[in-house]
Structure formats: C-alpha cells, structure tokens
Amino acid sequence: MIIGLDHIAIAVKDLDLAAPAYEALLGRAPDWREEAAGARHAWFQLSNMALDLIQPDGPGESGDRVRARLAAGGEGLWGLAFTVDDLDETRRVLGRRGAPTRPPADLLSTDAWRLAFLEPEASHGVPIALAERAGTPRIPAAFDEDCVHALDHVVINTPNPDRALALYGARLGLDFRLDRSNADWGSRLLFFRAGAAVVEIGASLKAPVSDDPDRLSGLAWRVANPLAAHGRLAAAGFDVSEVRKGRKPGTSVFTVRSGVAGAPSLILSAAPGTPET
C-alpha cells in the first residue's frame, strides 16, 4: 500500500520561466529535466519527496493532461503522487474500497517507474497518482542551511471533511494523526502522515458542507535556518512576510507571498510531522 509521498506535480505554461523561480525558492537546481509524452519536466528532489514542474510541449498523453489542467485552472498546484510498494496489489485493494484506478502506465526517467491514477470521481477534485519505482531511489543533493531540504506538509481545502476522511484515511490508508477544530481559526484541520511528510486537510467551520471539489492550496517547506532563508529569499526579490513564532514552541515561520506561480508557500523550522499553519 502507500508508504509515502512521492512527488507533487505543478502545471506551468513556461518551464524556462518557472524552473528558475523554483530554483530560487528552494535554493537548489533541478536534479534532472526530461521531455516525454508531449511534456517537459523539471524535477527537484528533496529529502522526503520531489517537486515535478510540467509544461505541455507537443502531442502526447502527458502534454494533453497538462493542457487540460491549464485551460481549466491555470498554472499552479496540480496533483499528488503517493509511493506504493506494490502497484498491482494497491490497485486491487483500492478498487475493493471504492477508489478505482485507471490502468497503469510504464514510464522511464532516471529510474524506471509505473504510475496509476485514481479515477477523477474517486479523488474529489485533486488528481492522485500511485507510483511504484524500480531501482535505487534518487538521493538529493546536499543543501545549505538557508535552502529548503524537505516538505513539511501540503494543504488541501475541502468543503466536506467527512468525505476527505473517508478518502485519505479509510480508502488510501494514510496514517490519521489529528482532527482539530478551532472556532478562533474558523476551521477544522485533519492531519494525515504520508511517510516523512504530512497531508493537511482544511475545512471551513462557517461554510456549509457540499459536494464541491477539493483543491490543493499550499505547500509548507522545512529549512534548517529560517532567518538565513528569509534573508536569501528577500535578496532574491521574493515578497516575504516577517519571521514570526510558529504555533509550536521553538519554531519560526514566514510566508512567501509572491514569486512562484500558483503555489502559495510557507517556510518553517519544525520537527518532521508537526505542521505549522
């Protein structure tokens, strides 16, 4: 079944503009680039997952999917891919749990891997893929203390928290860690552990429950030295908030308000699996 978060896909119109922006944000160059199935990719490998920037580029299944996403929602956070240890068995179990998948595709990059996508009606608006890899996992390059080294959490907004619980907890089998409602925040937060990263589901306490789609809404990145990271990003021209205390004692956090298309970002120092929002 699912053993972690493999990567997050971001749809972009121009990879030659988007990749340098993410290189500046993360403080590291792409680990590899690829052109396949009508799409161009820039892949940033971090310690607990990867970021895949994808631009349509000619005919092909991948290119068609990115073009459809850009036409429907513009640039930005697109979908999640979870690592599985046995793709065929995971597909079988998810089918029995009411989350069917499309037939897997065999893809080749630096490693050989296979992907299968949940049927759209099963994932409630957030494209979800299952990734099975063959061979040795990529090892990320060394990082400086002012550079992003890992994802802390990815944020999904939902109008229906019980539906999200059924999908991410009961069907996908992610490790359900916390269910917290706070009237001061006006929200209910659900935390699921996926390997060394967290999927955070947020729902408004003020809006009625509905069957509207879920949406990816932000990423929170870990750094070793938030003050140094703040200085580096400010010097690079990013619009950043002041560094402030996180909700967890001893942590610091700041917001990146602009600089990368469609992917609101939070930078924080926090222990793994302890999201700051």
CATH class of the largest domain: Alpha Beta
Largest sheet data: 9 strands, mixed
Helix content: 10-25%
Oligomer: single chain
Structural class: alpha+beta
Tell me the overall shape. Answer: globular
CATH architecture of the largest domain: Roll
Mean pLDDT: 91
* Total E-strand runs: 17
CATH superfamily of the largest domain, by name, is: 2,3-Dihydroxybiphenyl 1,2-Dioxygenase, domain 1
Radius of gyration, whole Å: 18 Å
Beta-strand portion reads 35-45%
How many H/I helical runs? Answer: 6
Terminal CA distance: 28 Å
How many domains, in number, for the residues? 2
Poorly predicted residue ranges: 272-277
By CATH, the topology of the largest domain is: 2,3-Dihydroxybiphenyl 1,2-Dioxygenase, domain 1
Q: Give the helices and strands as they follow along the chain.
A: EHEEEHEHEEHEEHEEEEHEEEE
What features would you describe in this structure?
There is one protein chain. With about 280 residues, the chain is α+β, with helices and mostly antiparallel strands. It folds into 2 domains: about 1-135, 2,3-Dihydroxybiphenyl 1,2-Dioxygenase, domain 1; about 150-270, 2,3-Dihydroxybiphenyl 1,2-Dioxygenase, domain 1 (Roll). About 20% of the residues lie in helices and about 40% in strands. The protein has 6 helices and 17 strands. The chain has helices at about 15-25, 60-75, 85-95, 120-125, 160-170, 225-235, and strands at about 1-10, 30-35, 40-45, 50-55, 75-85, 105-110, 110-115, 130-135, 150-155, 175-180, 185-195, 195-205, 215-225, 240, 245, 250-260, 265-270. The strands form 2 sheets. Strands 9, 10, 11, 12, 13, 14, 15, 16 and 17 form a 9-stranded mixed sheet that branches. It has an 8-stranded mixed sheet with strand order 2-3-4-1-5-8-7-6. The longest helix is centred in the N-terminal third of the chain and has 13 residues, at about 60-75. The chain starts with a strand and ends in a 9-residue tail after the last strand. Residues about 270-275 have low confidence and may be disordered.
